[in-house]
Write a structure and sequence with these properties.
Elements: E1 7-15, E2 18-25, E3 33-43, H1 45-52, E4 67-75, E5 87-90, E6 93-94, H2 100-103, E7 114-115, E8 127-131, E9 135-137, H3 150-163, E10 170-174, H4 178-187, E11 194-198, H5 202-211, E12 215-217, H6 222-229, E13 234-239, H7 244-248, E14 254-262, H8 274-279, E15 283-286, H9 294-302, H10 305-311, E16 312-316, H11 321-329, E17 337-341
Parallel strand pairs: 10-11, 10-13, 11-12, 13-14, 14-15, 16-17
Antiparallel strand pairs: 1-2, 3-4, 3-8, 3-17, 4-5, 5-9, 6-7
Length: 344
Amino acid sequence: MLTASTTARAVVTTAPRVIALQERQVPEPAAGEVLVRTVATGICGSDVHLFHGDHPYSNYPLVQGHETVGRIEQVGPGEAEGLVGSLVAVEPTAECRRCGECLRGAYNRCENLQVLGVQKAGSLAGYVVARTCKVHPVPHTESPAAWALAEPVAVAAHAVERSGTVAGDTVVVLGAGVIGLAIALCLQRRHPQSVILVEPSVERRARVDRLGLGMAVAPEDRDAALAGAAPSGADVVFEATGIPSVLSGAHGLARFGGRIVVVGQGAGDFTVPVIEMTRKELTLTGSRNSAGTFPLAIETLAARPDVLAELVTHRFAPDQVEAAYDELARPGSGALKVLVEFDA
């Protein structure tokens, strides 16, 4: 099946805080690839930083969009024609398959990694080419666009895998944005004794309660809540804000022998007293993208349609992308997952 047109209108970030709508050629899938027509693209904090020009990977012109749900429009040579029309979530990583990390199976940290919407044109182009192995079928639901959440939930599932969380653990999650909530959701499969989400926003804390994802507390109540749950400290602390000062304080929440998992992306440096790392034998673990967790993320979300509905707070059209970025960045905004929706 071929696209009806050889061109499509793409949303292009041409410079920091500058967007243009440009007609671009619809790409052709090669062998081992499919062409996906965008249904919706999720906007996250990293997208805002890329748009503002203060992300380490900012480079222009750039077609953003790495959280993608769409329909397979065309398949490359040798691919099954029956895939055409399938609703899929797109795993945005394009690894080299040759470096040491790829050969170890850790393609999410490929030494030559390219990510759709960052180093490669993303789904705000209206169409995106992806490897066939990187498109994952999703259920047909009332809001197909909401399946753009599969990508951040896959990121959270990967972080939970790296954390080593086991049944009975006490876990602290710093931040109740999309990633923090997704971490709490994925943790439920591991049956921790308690999950404490630390979040300054009253609205976000209320959402944690509605979804039954753990105990939500304000930062000023954090220490008392942790002392009540685990006087010796948390087994695992997830940093999901990307704020260096928040990460710098995470060591004080972990028990002796505890683990700190860094998931939030941000600019700047953090500090941890060396003596605390050694005295408490802490483990500091980074987590990047996802590797093999998209099916688990889709299964997890399919079991919780209330989460799909609750996390999507704002929807915009492709010609309103600048407004979408502004809303997510606006101080005091109630935005959580912002979607840019194309024709379904």
